[in-house]
Amino acid sequence: MSQDDAPLVNRVAQSGLITLNLEEYYPREPVVVIDLKDYLFQGLILREKEYREQLKSYDWTSLAGKHLVVHCSTDAIIPVWAYMLVTALATPHALTVSLCQPEEFIVLHYQKALADLDVERYRGERIVIKGCSDHPVPPFAYALLTAKLQPVAQSIMFGEPCSTVPIFKRPRELRVESGE
Fold first, then answer.
1. How many CB atoms lie within 10 A of CB 72?
2. Which 8-state DSSP code applies to residue 115?
3. If you ran DSSP here, which 8-state letter would residue 177 be given?
4. What is d(CA 165, CA 129) in angstroms, rounded to the nearest whole number?
5. For residues 50 and 42, what is the distance between their CA atoms, to the nearest angstrom?
6. d(CA 119, CA 88)
7. H-helix or E-strand containing 60?
């Protein structure tokens, strides 16, 4: 049998590497943002009576199946109860309610998703944390996942199974048994 006739062997599939793709934790549901600046009198002051009336006219049912982010994009001082009131009205409808800047939502989302991840199933395994994605995965998520996996994983790499960057490798005398 010549080299041209030899069957193709997928060495990546045979390597025993487990690929984790952080993009799988990216929120699939839409995110709605409420900016409290739109509820301020002259862009500066929150008047309770008017604020309550405006919130009454908001269609809270439109948040069904969506994440809500509440923030204020101006330097106005917003009383804590104003955030609490929006949260109370939105909670029965929205998937989640986050009080943060819109760009911080994704970090909070990953923080919650990775906190719930059972890493015990990766005990003793060789892990590749996938690097390429179509959605912006924050560097924080890669660092958090690495910290969670390090106590149980045999090794952690970054990239694609065919081209990885080593991140962590457990010393031989401290090897852990596979979870199988």
1. 20
2. H
3. -
4. 10
5. 12
6. 34
7. none
Q: What is the pLDDT of residues 109-122, one digit of tens each?
A: 999 999 999 999 99
| Cβ atoms of 133 and 23 closer than 8 Å | yes
Alpha-carbon Rg for the chain in angstroms: 23
> Beta strand pairing status for 126-130 and 96-99?
unpaired
**Residue found by looking up tokens 């943060």 in the block:** 100
125 token code pair: 């395994």
Cβ-based neighbour number of residue 19 at 10 Å: 14
Q: What is the pLDDT of residue 13?
A: 44
Element holding 27 (H helix, E strand): none
pTM of the model: 0.76
Give yes or no for a contact between 131 and 159, defined as CB atoms under 8 angstroms apart: yes
**AA letter at 178:** S
Q: Which residues touch 153 (CB under 8 Å, ≥6 apart)?
A: 119, 122, 123, 124, 125, 126, 127, 168, 170, 176
For the purposes of burial, counting CB atoms within 10 Å of the CB of 64, is it exposed (0-12), middle (13-18) or buried (19 or more)? exposed
Contact 67, 29 (CB under 8 A): yes
pLDDT at 4: 67
In the chain, where the domains are located: 11-26+108-174, 31-94
* CA gap 103, 37 in Å, rounded: 17
Percent of the chain beyond pLDDT 90?
78
